[in-house]
Amino acid sequence: MTDAPYRILGVPVPNGLLIVGDHASNRIPPDIDLGIAPDQMLRHIAWDIGVADVAEHIVNDYRCAAILGNVSRLVTDLNRYPDESDVIPGQSDGLFIPGNCLDGEARAARIGRYYTPYHDRLSSILQDQRPALILSIHSFTPRLSSRPDEQRPWEVGILYNDFEIPSKLAIRFLDEAGIKVGDQLPYSGKALNATMNRHAEANSIPYIGIELRQNEVEHSAGQVRFARILTEMCHYVSEKLGLGLQKP
Q1: Virtual CA dihedral for 112, 159, 48, 56, nearest 10 degrees?
Q2: pLDDT value at position 146?
Q3: What CA–CA distance (Å, rounded) separates 80 from 61?
Q4: Could you tell me if residue 139 is inside a domain?
Q5: Inside any domain, residue 248
Q6: Where is 11: in which H helix or E strand?
Q7: Number of domains in the chain
Q8: Cys-Cys crosslink for 98: which of 17, 35, 170, 173, Cβ 3.0 to 4.6 Å?
Q9: From the Swiss-Prot or TrEMBL record, what is one GO molecular function term (predicted)?
Q10: Looking at the predicted structure, is the pLDDT value of residue 2 above 90?
């Protein structure tokens, strides 16, 4: 189904690892015109570069599953609440998106077509095959066009809201592995954590929210490297918390 709002990799199993990738795709459905140049869809504003490939490597090498968003976040941002204006962004990193100037009916239709089915499917997975741990993967650009002087030296950022313990363990693991890791950087999970707030924290499911710097995972070698690192990180957190994930 090329128009499906999500992709499922692997088979979700109870008490396993579930990967969530809200921004894994830069796809625009053929009947949607955002009114921007095609090359803009290759930029970070359209998707989280590298996330889908990292998730696929993890699923292929480890017994787990992933749910990945299958439309660009410029079509609908799955990591927002449905009543937020940015769920259908009017601009991103200084770029105006004229095709997102929608009236209330058109906004509701797009949210109903892509946002709602994605979150409904994630909810059903959590209800029917409740995982022991969720790994939420995003990626961040090394530099924003709108803030060119802002430095983002971290290879990895860890985000969390109220559930801090899994993330603090993940930070310890990454730091000891020699990874330059940002605690609540380059963003704060206290400010932006919609999907994990809604599906992990609300259901008392341990999770790790991770941001990978895009120049580290835009190529196959980096994708393989971080797939291995993240798998080992999840097992480390599982051991410390007694979650019972199988060894990688």
Answers
A1: -90
A2: 57
A3: 30
A4: yes
A5: no
A6: none
A7: 1
A8: 35
A9: hydrolase activity
A10: no
The verdict on residue 120 lying in a domain is yes
Instruction: Tell me how far apart the alpha carbons of residues 114 and 2 are, in angstroms, rounded to a whole number.
Output: 12
* Domain membership of residue 137 as a residue range: 6-241
Using the structure block, give the residue that is written with the tokens 């590298």. Answer: 50
Taking each continuous run of H as one helix and of E as one strand, the counts in the chain are 7, 9
Each residue's pLDDT tens digit, 200-223: 999 999 999 999 999 999 999 999
Nearest Cα neighbor of 181 from 171, 190, 173, 189 is 171
CA distance 22 to 18: 13
Q: Which tokens is 32 given?
A: 């949607």
Q: How far is CA 172 from CA 19, 58, 77, 153, 240, in A?
A: 20, 21, 30, 18, 11
55: Cα separation from own chain's centroid: 10
Both tokens of 65, joined, read 């599953």
Cα–Cα distance between 238 and 18 in angstroms, integer? 13
- Give CA–CA dist 74/227, Å, rounded: 26
Q: Compute the half-sphere exposure of residue 224: CA atoms within 13 Å on the CB side of its CA.
A: 3
CA–CA gap between residue 132 and residue 23 (Å, rounded): 22
Residue 88: what pLDDT?
A: 98
Give the model confidence (pLDDT) of 19-65 as tens digits.
999 999 999 999 999 999 999 999 999 999 999 999 999 999 998 99
Q: What is the CATH number of the domain that holds 133?
A: 3.40.630.40
- The phi, psi pair for 124, rounded to 5°, reads -70, -35
Query: What digits encode the pLDDT tens for the residues 145-196?
Result: 556 667 789 999 999 999 999 999 999 999 999 999 999 999 899 999 999 9
